[in-house]
Amino acid sequence: MIEENIESSIQNLWQEVRDLNLGTPPHIDHLPTPPTPLQFLRHYINPNKPCLISAAVPHWPALSLWPSLAYLRTTLATTAVSLHLTPTGKADSIAPHPTSPSSLCFASAHVEKLPFPEALDSVMASEEKNKVAYLQQQNDCFRSEYGALAADCEGHIPWATEALGCSPEAVNLWVGNHLSETSFHKDHYENLYVVITGEKRFLLLPPTDVHRMYIRKYPAAHYLYHQDSGEFSLEIDDPITYVPWCSVDPYPSPNEKQREIEKFPLYFNGPKPFEVTVKAGEILYLPSMWFHHVRQSPDDTGLTIAINYWYDMQFDIKYAYFNFLQSIPHSLSNDRALFETRNVESNLDGSSFDSGDESDTAVTRDVRDVSDNEND
Ligand SMILES: O=C(O)CCC(=O)C(=O)O
Q: What are the JmjC domain coordinates in residue numbering (predicted)?
């Protein structure tokens, strides 16, 4: 009885934040031009509400320069950059456990440092179900590895910097194609995400929907790419560590769809996520702690290029409310069903339930090198 009351209160919360604050999915606010710092603070940062901003960076040379691969190859001719390799395009995501394939693990990409022109060739040559390359490194890479491109963009987003009262903690570059996909997760940053070429498609869920993500602890694993055979192996990290991660794949294959709906009913049968396509020259404001899933489509050159600015979030009362909500168990029966399904299948399921926090994940781990914020 108490459980039912809690579950219906949480469900009311999902609806109430939409009715009172966010609006009706799939749309988010779309601003034709950048807001003033005060508008941004009042209407978006304080209410923790996303928005899409057009004509956001018309003065950036990157918009006209980066669609030219020749320009990028010349400017970065001798620069070593981090290339993430996976067999499927899904890095930092849930994958079959290597020694117990009916259970799951958290798989990170094989990362190589290569001269940019070679790394770019690898992205362009990516092949589905074989080898997918994504140029990215969430450790402030734009200001380190890609320093030669600094003059093509601003070092910060001025109206966001003024509204947030600080400079970006990290600026990251993402160069990929339609095969790269980023699984549902959240970050403890205010994110200003700028697309330069191609398009990015985001699915967004507010922090209040945390129970719909089925965050579980998965054993950490990493892909190894074997140059000689051209094949990948997946190895569990030694010593073993566990990564809390979202379990939901919002785009299951047709033959897995029914099973996924049964495993994750709170996601598939609950309110639709917000959906936004970010085009070249636009900025998505992705508020801290929002769950996001990202796919992309390239422009004529075959690439999608984006740059994002991570600003420190305030660890204020919203953060405290979020932690409290996350600590409340929801839908115990569904959790049990998931647990039992996996154990019947494998008897050796590495994953475990987690009411805790995803913050200590691969996605945020790298950037901690440049962060002195230990709050998360
Ligand atoms: O562009 C992507 O693939 C992922 C972006 C992302 O997760 C982020 O900016 O936090």
A: 133-326
